[in-house]
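Q: What would this chain look like folded?
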Amino acid sequence: MYPHKTYEIPKRIRASANDNLNYFLRSGTDQQINFIFHLNGFVDANRLKRAVRLTMDAEPVLGCKYIANRKRSYWERSDNLESLEYFTFIKSENPEVDIRKIVLYQIDPSIESIIQIKLIRTKEKDILYIKSDHSVMDGGGFYDYLTLLCDTYNKLIEDPNYQVEPNVLATRELNQVFKHYKFRKKMRSLLREKGYMPTWSFPSIGTGRKKKTFILRQIDPDRFERIKEYGKERNATLNDMFLTAAFRSLFELNKPIKNKAMTIAVPTDLRVLMPTKKAETIANLVSATFVSLKYNPEATFDEMLIDINKQMNMKKDIHLGMGQTYMINNLFKLRYAWVRWLASRIYKGLYRRGKMHPIITNVGRIDSQKRYFGEVDVEDGYIITPINWAPSFSMGISSYNKRISFSIAFCEDSYDKRTVELFLDNIFKELPQ
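A: My prediction, written as structure tokens:
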């Protein structure tokens, strides 16, 4: 047990509404967040292992397991953290094979360490792999963890006896966002949001969940600049561009009824609604908004881009899906067993209909904040999104040093790999060359 300062670590921590929701969503996806970082040198493996262990005291929830109680769910501190596999050092001749194995592995947050670090050492450099279960953090929470890990590692260089101070006074609850807004604004956000009911889904071949795989594509920095400039000339963001390309690709694959509105779900980070833009602790503060386009085979890329840009600006005006998350937060004040039953009924209904919003999640710039381990820098990084099976489908987008990465993790007994490849091919064709 590593020493720490001042505050005692609690035995139990209440699970937030978003923690519970993301745990429930395991019925359609493996709910694993995977980040891979290519370093430009070698780190001290023993120091990194100690840093990982210290982070589990600095943010106590990381040393917990998820307990699903009929009345209330909670995080319970593991009795023997040292026995958990939270850090693995791998000497590798073929790192791509090792990365693939780790991506396809699913953490059980009720038993295992919910944060798992793999240091993959090649002859030339180290690759840092960070895997977490979505029930404890979202993409924004992951960035907070990465910052904590880097800071802890670097402080151990300065002082090998460095102690952490557990962050026990902060809240993981969604109220850290809601308290800044009046009830009227929350209801306005809820009532003005449209597109809750799925109208389509990604083309599937079954509902299997065994043949797990993933595809990663990247756009080089030069093309990144051209895409960014194209959007800037039209007052559109990079995310607007990606959504437009995704819609056009899905239209090409699905060929929906002309002039019928089709919808994509877009996860949003509620941290941007807080005065500091930062959470009090590592948490799940993700919501979702919905963007719709009517299928018109004659519409140009620019025409669709203008429409999406207007919608996304409106979504910002109604606080990025805060209203629906506020309602979900209140729903989880009921008995856990009742909410679990209701969530199961809703998902079974979607499963029978075979329709679920395709999800396009853009976690943004991984390098927006400089992170390093001593004298070793991160030279490339990307996200692999959770593995989905029909009718659930998602694509993750991230960037590092102006290199854009697109990842799709899926089951080949749910989705034909050639169709997924074609979806990405179409996106790359649609984006400015």
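The chain has a mean pLDDT of 92.
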